[in-house]
């Protein structure tokens, strides 16, 4: 016999404390008036009372279909644990909706409006009072928002996990839902069988344990018990004639008026509630904090990161009970008049382009292959193209705050498009093709652009991989190809559209969003780094002042982030003939040809590019060597490089002052050191790579690491202290895009670092290093690569440098094996000549490496080549090597790392 009444869950469900379960009798509303319904809820309130802890508020958590309150068990445990450690205590009330979980089976249809009313009746029965933060997942998100709109006086905040309040007209609903709703399929997929339930549980990333899967199935062991699952699917409003459509529209419209703190947490691998719905919610809640958990799927609440993120947000945003618009907002840009650009905020990034609008001198040189003459674009031509494209983009609907993803290689076209977007306040999104198809897809979909501008290859990928946004082609394509790729316009059409039009009269202000630049992905998934116009202008000004860039300097830029700064600096620029997505395709003759064609006095190269430039130096002609002799300044920008490699590159430009600035996508220029400075530092006994002293008004501090390898110490500029490097500059990023938790971690514990009367932006770099007595910064690795031994944390770079002095060692990586806190160091060496196979090094090499290392080594392994990251060939993938070394030393034969 099937039990219709509400009952507690069976004992023994993993992670679920039976003491949290309650059965609540609730007077029915609407068609249920006069009937009392039984609800099962998980409620941590009684446990807090038992502990004598006062709750600061209540989290009202609402599950979706076909889960139940078990979804929030980790949050319940985590919130109680937080309270036990003196953090603000939040009561969690997680409901089982009627006909779901272990609540009563009513046997009645419950459309969306009824479910919102049902939830209100439950909270009335519980006498739930302010402050309340709603938390909803799946269709529970919509219902929780409906409750929020009905209870404004109690509402302190809203949090949502993979849900939707609006579906664009003309776009099919997600395929799994279409299949479940198909005629003749609905009952069989949802109630007669467990197909819909099984499919949903399979969406968890990582996969559920068998025990957790059984717990989710526990309330739904018969067809009668699964009737609510069928009812939920049938109630999905697929069009304006559906019974719940008007209620969904009411909630969707009402969300736009909510001004309480909001948090959107998302599992981007969800095939149902994808980034399309996140973008819609961001547009409705422009003040919301957003975090996309890369790799996570539909059941994000199964992950500890979700609960930790919610509690951190409650602590930061809701406990103070003050609604604010956070820095991570992705809302419409504020209307800032042109006068907002004053002496205190610099000049717009396009200022130099305007100043040289009538100049027929060369602005950009585009190198070509096959011996063809370079293409030259004058300042007048570039300015005219920017003006026309800006007007054309505006005419086709691109507005301030819209995101424009650029899949165009460096050159005149990309420069014109970038400055056109910036002129109208559109946000340029730049992700390096070197991320690969998967990484690029993650970046583009994560930023959810409104427009994609690209060449045929990029637009083909956008079509095949389902990237969002209106598509604009660089070149004109045949009608059939344009239709197949979904192309709306070409750049030529936009330029013609804007021929006689003026640029929009309301240019962006200094604090409007300007760009999202993606990191290399060398330490995890690539992150979108958001910059304002003020910060881009500050970067331009610092570069110009520190390196003495003038209108006659000229730049050769083989490093993508700086390839677009020539017009901003008011100096001509050229990108050598190379594949910018693969830096090691750059050759010394290509650099020389670019210098000769542009008369450039300054050369920017990435460390990965320098390797091949040095290796191909023998191919230089006398004319090429003569061109390189005219270079006055050479910069290796990106990862720190060795003295030997810098000297080899500088030898090709004998009259140039060689610099190797230190920075990252989040703060492109932090410190600087010349080759002479590197040589001077070589006499020091400090470990690591010396990257010099802070540039201009930049500041560098170190947060000391504790014995567990965490940067917990108060930031200091004391010499010799090993810790995480913290930097501050006027051009430090504004925030990470849709990565609220990551952004929070990057600025944690920086309060109080400013001097009296100043407010600075700080960034925790994730790099490990120390400052010396001369104020120079030494980089010793990355925080995740610290080896926490029984004697304390060991940074790898110093040991690697000593090992690389051994004859026959080309490069080295030092990684940890064994349990955390008891890890032992292992040296992995790339030899010359290259080892024939990966494995234990020969005894003679092992002895030499151990003698040179200066620290105990558990083993020495030799490999034909060390694996590097996607974009920076100079950055060794130590995390990958650590896993490989563990397997080798365990007796496996995993092959090359």
Strand content: 15-25%
What strand line-up does the widest sheet have? Answer: 1-2-4-3-5-6-7-8
Q: Look at the structure and name the CATH superfamily of the largest domain.
A: Alpha/Beta hydrolase fold, catalytic domain
Give the integer mean of the pLDDT values.
91
So, CATH architecture of the largest domain? 3-Layer(aba) Sandwich
Tell me the CATH topology of the largest domain.
Answer: Rossmann fold
Q: What is the 3D form?
A: globular
Are there runs of 5+ residues with pLDDT below 50, and where?
322-339, 870-874
Radius of gyration: 30 Å
Number of domains: 4
Judged by helices, strands and strand pairing, the structural class is alpha/beta
In which range does the helix fraction lie? 25-40%
In the CATH scheme, the class of the largest domain would be Alpha Beta
Total helical elements: 30
Number of strands: 36
Major β-sheet profile: 8 strands, mixed
**Cα distance, first to last residue?**
58 Å
């Amino acid at each position: 016999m099937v039990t219709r009444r509400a009952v507690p869950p069976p004992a023994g469900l993993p992670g679920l404390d039976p003491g949290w379960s309650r059965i609540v009798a609730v007077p029915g509303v609407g068609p249920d008036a006069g009937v009392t319904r039984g609800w099962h809820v998980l409620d941590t309130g009684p446990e807090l009372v038992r502990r004598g802890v006062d709750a600061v508020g209540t989290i009202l958590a609402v599950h979706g279909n076909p889960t139940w309150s078990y979804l929030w068990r980790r949050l319940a445990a985590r919130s109680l644990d937080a309270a036990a450690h003196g953090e603000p205590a939040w009561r969690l009330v997680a409901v089982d909706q009627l006909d779901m979980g272990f609540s009563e089976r009513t046997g009645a249809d419950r459309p969306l409006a009824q479910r919102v009313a049902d939830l209100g009746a439950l909270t009335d029965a519980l006498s739930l009072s302010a402050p309340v933060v709603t938390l909803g997942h799946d269709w529970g998100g919509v219902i929780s928002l409906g409750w929020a709109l009905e209870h404004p006086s109690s509402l302190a905040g809203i949090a949502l996990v993979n849900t939707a309040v609006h579906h664009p007209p003309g776009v099919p609903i997600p395929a799994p839902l279409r299949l479940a709703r198909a005629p003749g399929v609905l009952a069989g997929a949802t109630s007669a069988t467990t197909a819909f339930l099984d499919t949903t549980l399979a969406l968890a990333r990582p996969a559920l344990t068998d025990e957790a899967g059984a717990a989710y199935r526990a309330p739904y062991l018969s067809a009668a018990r699964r009737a609510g699952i069928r009812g939920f699917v049938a109630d999905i409003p697929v069009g304006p004639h559906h019974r719940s459509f008007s209620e969904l529209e009411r909630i969707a419209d009402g969300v736009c008026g909510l001004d309480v703190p909001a948090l959107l947490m998302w599992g981007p691998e969800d095939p149902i509630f994808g980034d399309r719905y996140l973008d819609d919610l961001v547009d409705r809640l422009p003040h919301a904090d957003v975090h996309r958990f890369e790799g996570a799927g539909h059941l994000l609440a199964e992950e500890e990161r979700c609960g930790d993120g919610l509690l951190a947000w409650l602590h930061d945003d809701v406990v103070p009970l003050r609604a604010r618009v956070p820095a991570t907002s992705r809302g419409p840009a504020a209307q800032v008049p042109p006068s907002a650009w004053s002496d205190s905020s610099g000049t717009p990034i396009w200022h130099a382009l305007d100043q040289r609008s009538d100049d027929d001198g060369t602005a950009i040189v585009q190198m070509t292959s096959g011996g063809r003459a370079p293409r030259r674009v004058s300042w007048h031509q570039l300015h005219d193209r920017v003006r026309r494209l800006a007007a054309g983009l505006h005419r086709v609907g691109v507005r301030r705050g819209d995101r424009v993803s650029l899949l165009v290689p460096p050159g005149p076209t990309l420069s014109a498009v970038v400055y056109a977007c910036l002129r109208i306040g559109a946000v340029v999104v730049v992700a390096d093709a070197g991320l690969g198809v998967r990484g690029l897809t993650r970046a583009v979909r994560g930023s959810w652009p409104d427009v994609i501008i690209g060449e045929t290859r990029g637009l083909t990928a956008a079509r095949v991989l389902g990237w969002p946004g209106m598509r604009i082609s660089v070149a004109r394509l045949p009608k059939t190809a344009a239709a197949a790729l979904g192309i709306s316009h070409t750049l030529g059409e936009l330029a013609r559209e804007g021929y006689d039009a003026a640029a929009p009269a309301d240019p962006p202000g200094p604090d409007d969003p300007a760009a999202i630049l993606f990191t290399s992905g060398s330490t995890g998934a690539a992150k979108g780094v958001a910059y304002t116009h003020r910060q881009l202008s500050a970067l331009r000004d610092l570069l110009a002042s520190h390196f003495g860039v003038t209108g006659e300097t000229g730049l050769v830029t083989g490093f993508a982030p700086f390839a677009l700064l020539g017009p901003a600096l008011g100096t001509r620029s050229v990108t050598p003939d190379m594949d910018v997505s693969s830096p090691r395709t750059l050759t010394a003759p290509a650099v020389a040809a670019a210098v000769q064609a542009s008369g450039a006095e300054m050369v920017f190269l990435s460390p990965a590019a320098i390797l091949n430039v040095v290796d191909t130096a023998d191919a230089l002609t006398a004319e090429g060597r003569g061109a390189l002799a005219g270079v006055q300044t050479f910069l290796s920008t990106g990862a720190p490089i060795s003295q030997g490699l810098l000297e080899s590159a500088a030898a090709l430009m004998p009259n140039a002052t060689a610099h190797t600035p230190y920075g990252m996508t989040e703060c492109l220029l932090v410190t600087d050191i010349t080759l002479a400075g590197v040589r001077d530092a070589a006499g020091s006994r400090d470990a690591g790579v010396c990257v010099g002293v802070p540039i201009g008004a930049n500041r560098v501090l170190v947060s000391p690491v504790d014995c567990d390898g965490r940067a917990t110490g108060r930031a200091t500029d004391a010499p010799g202290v090993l810790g995480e490097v913290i930097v501050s500059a006027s051009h430090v990023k504004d925030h990470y895009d849709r990565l609220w938790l990551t952004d929070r971690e990057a600025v944690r514990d920086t309060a109080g670092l400013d001097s009296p009367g100043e407010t600075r932006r700080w960034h925790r770099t994730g790099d490990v290093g120390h400052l010396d007595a001369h104020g120079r910064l030494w980089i010793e690795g990355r925080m995740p690569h610290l080896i926490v031994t029984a004697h304390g944390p060991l940074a790898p770079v110093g040991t690697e440098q000593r090992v690389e002095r051994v004859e026959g060692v080309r490069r080295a990586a030092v990684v940890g094996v064994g349990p955390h806190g008891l890890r032992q160091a292992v040296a992995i060496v790339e030899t010359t000549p290259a080892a024939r196979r990966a494995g234990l090094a020969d005894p003679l090499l092992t002895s030499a490496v151990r003698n040179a290392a200066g620290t105990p080594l558990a083993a020495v392994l030799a490999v034909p080549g060390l694996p590097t990251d996607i974009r920076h060939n100079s950055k060794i993938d130590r995390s990958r090597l650590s896993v490989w070394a563990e397997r080798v030393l365990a007796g496996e034969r995993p092959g090359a790392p």
